[in-house]
Design goal:
Structural class: alpha+beta
Oligomer: single chain
Strand content: 35-45%
Order of helices and strands: HEHHEEEEEE
Helix content: 10-25%
Distance between the termini: 33 Å
Strand order of the largest sheet: 6-5-4-1-7
Shape: globular
């Protein structure tokens, strides 16, 4: 498991230098993004938490954010975090687009502020909140 997370961290570092290509055309919302780096403004977190957030009525979304703050397990060597639950609010954060196979969300690698510091994690964001770096 550590190897997978460490390789993800290294992939994030390597992908940071790769230029991104354009987003899919607006006419095809299900087309795969052909970018490695993007920016996210909005909610991101564990897949289940993001689905729950999106299903929450608009009047309760702020409460959901406050009651379900992102929590992750930090590795013993403090090199990475994994096993995240909850959500966090990202504000134009630079991310590595990790996997774009889900029709509603995109897996991203982003640095997240946790109780023990800032760590790279793999979480998901709603597809419409991930904008490719141009």
């Amino acid at each position: 498991m550590k190897r997978v997370i460490l390789s993800s961290v290294f992939a994030f570092t390597a992908l940071s230098a790769v230029p991104a290509t354009a987003q899919p055309s607006s006419g095809d919302s299900n087309a795969k993004r052909d970018c490695a780096i993007g920016y996210v403004t909005g909610v991101a977190g564990s897949a289940q938490s993001v689905r729950d957030y999106l299903a929450t009525p608009d009047r309760d979304k702020i409460r959901y954010l406050k009651e379900n703050d992102i929590q992750c397990k930090v590795a013993d060597d403090d090199s990475h975090a994994s096993g995240c639950t909850g959500v966090t609010l990202l504000k134009n954060e630079k991310v590595s687009v990790y996997d774009d196979s889900d029709p509603a969300t995109t897996a991203i690698v982003v640095r997240v502020e946790l109780d023990r510091g800032t760590y790279p994690v793999i979480i998901v964001a709603p597809r419409n909140e991930v904008k490719c770096d141009e």
